[in-house]
Amino acid sequence: xxxxxxxxxxxxxxxxxxxxxxxxxxxxxxxxxxxxxxxxxxxxxxxxxxxxxxxxxxxxxxxxxxxxxxxxxxxxxxxxxxxxxxxxxxxxxxxxxxxxxxxxxxxxxxxxxxxxxxxxxxxxxxxxxxxxxxxxxxxxxxxxxxxxxxxxxxxxxxxxxxxxxxxxxxxxxxxxxxxxxxxxxxxxxxxxxxxxxxxxxxxxxxxxxxxxxxxxxxxxxxxxxxxxxxxxxxxxxxxxxxxxxxxxxxxxxxxxxxxxxxxxxxxxxxxxxxxxxxxxxxxxxxxxxxxxxxxxxxxxxxxxxxxxxxxxxxxxxxxxxxxxxxxxxxxxxxxxxxxxxxxxxxxxxxxxxxxxxxxxxxxxxxxxxxxxxxxxxxxxxxxxxxxxxxxxxxxx
Length: 396
Fold this sequence. Notes:
The protein has helices at 17-31, 70-75, 83-86, 91-103, 120-126, 139-149, 153-173, 185-193, 234-254, 269-272, 288-294, 310-317, 326-329, 346-357, 363-377, 380-394, and strands at 2-7, 35-42, 58-63, 108-112, 131-135, 179-182, 200-202, 224-228, 259-263, 279-283, 297-300, 322-324, 341-342. It is an alpha/beta fold and 396 residues long. The strands form two sheets. A seven-stranded parallel beta sheet has the order 3-2-1-4-5-6-7, sandwiched between helices. It has a six-stranded parallel beta sheet with strand order 10-9-8-11-12-13, with helices on both faces. Keywords: Transferase. Residues 17-211 form the Glycosyltransferase subfamily 4-like N-terminal domain.
């Protein structure tokens, strides 16, 4: 098949959840013998040369400045399209799509996420191929949850405004596609509640199991906790701040040898300047797999967000015992106490971490169960077959 993948950024390097989800589709479609063309916005934040994927796909990279602007955000208050979406609307992208689709025929077009959904009308005008949206999140839910947790009254009002605008956009645009691939069953249900009537197939994100093989030379440091996430995404920062304030302050007083290691790209100033005993901010690490293996108990303190956390699946693939919140575990086929630990209460987190420190938490057993789950359910080879089945069902 000839497949066009429309992306809000060049899906490389595969270091964060969004890039991993897109890159693994590109890579595995290519491995299955399909011809992939990636037309991607090349943002200042994630700028990459187009040739980085030349061994897997033809890449058409369109430079677009998607950086946040207070002025543009203010002017957007008077527009129908929410600011989060407007940042990705570009005449250059429309011209590139028009030129490409006038010259080349595709069997399937896959639009990656809501930020590129605006282009569905143009795609429908220019070609006969089925247009499928791969939903990474139900976006409005992220902003609703952020608004609910926000203490600043003005920020709360603006976040609610954004959530409403995104919800209305999603409600309108979901039904313009021929089908949708939902990343969680929960998201599938939410889309139906929004009034989506087109076919929705649940296809989770997976992991490239070969990238997450344990290195016998790396031994996890005892009595160590770690968090690895994009440190420039609001829900991740909200969760880390919650953990530091409500959990770490307590356990640091009673567990003197306990260490916390934070990793991720673009850490903000307040994290870099924490200056807390036994808290280490590593910033970007070139190998998530190597970093995860160096430390012991994995934490995912997420309060907002949507979709599913690929980093949890990666941690599971490495046999890590993971402590997270219900939001963090959302969309993952896991059982609390068996292959993951889940709680939203700070006192429960303190208890889990204290038990871990004292050797009373079944870290090894939980990690082994998690590793089996990742291999049996989330191997990318299984996931790509679900995409191919969806494509075949909607080809003319």
